[in-house]
Specification:
There is one protein chain. Strand 5, helix 4 and strand 6 form a beta-alpha-beta unit. The protein has a single domain, classed as Metallo-beta-lactamase, Chain A. With 211 residues, the chain is α/β, with parallel strands linked by helices.
């Protein structure tokens, strides 16, 4: 399997290209910014985009979606509880002194417990609220694209509009810590990690930091 990560935009967000291999159809996960750079990488790998899948709807994860939808004529899938985050995107951007973004069009709702088949891959949808109400993790068995729930040594913010710290706590303990230690987590920011490593050393999961 090919998993290609591009760190994009001012928030240094991880955008992923996922495919069975070079020269194959691919899924774009959380294309956050720099649509032209993402498109260049798609070309370098000779990939054919089929679908955009997002873990959630925050600006740093959807900034390139509209441009890539238009360029490749592909659908965009998001959990319905995060639709409110992808309208008026430039208003959100201005709060950070940014501009030039466009609202994407949501073509497909992601439903917890269902699987999305694209590019020859089956992504199981896990509802993981807390960072945002419609946050999901995208599971390929022992590989999980976790968005902004769990990071190497840290966790996602729960003080944003629509965030819920109690929901995030449940998500981390009931969803992520229920995964096998060998499960690889590809997060929305920072390096990849494993559930085992975070179970042993992440201070937010071990109880070293109370929150």
């Amino acid at each position: 399997m090919l998993i290609d990560r591009l760190v994009t935009g001012p928030f240094q967000e991880n955008s992923y290209l996922v495919a069975a291999g070079r020269g194959r159809p691919c899924v774009l996960i959380d294309p956050g910014d720099e649509a032209g750079r993402i498109a260049d990488r798609i070309g370098e790998l000779d990939l054919s985009p089929e679908l955009i899948l997002n873990t959630h709807g925050h600006l740093d994860h959807i900034g390139a979606v509209a441009d890539l939808q238009e360029r490749y004529g592909i659908p965009f899938a998001l959990h319905p509880a995060d639709r409110f985050l992808v309208t008026g995107v430039n208003e959100q951007a201005r709060m950070f002194g940014l501009h030039g973004y466009r609202d994407p069009t949501v073509d497909r709702d992601l439903v917890a417990g269902e699987s999305v088949h694209a590019a020859g891959l089956d992504f199981r949808i896990l509802h993981t609220p807390g960072h945002s109400p419609g946050h999901v993790a995208l599971s390929l068995g022992a590989i999980v694209f976790g968005g902004d729930c769990l990071f190497q040594g840290s966790i996602g913010r729960s003080d944003l509009p629509g965030s819920d710290p109690e929901a995030l706590h449940r998500t981390l303990h009931e969803v992520f810590l229920a995964m096998a230690d060998m499960t690889v987590i590809h997060p929305g920011h920072g390096p990849s990690t494993t559930i085992g490593a975070e179970r042993r050393s992440n201070p937010f999961l071990t109880g070293a930091i109370r929150w």
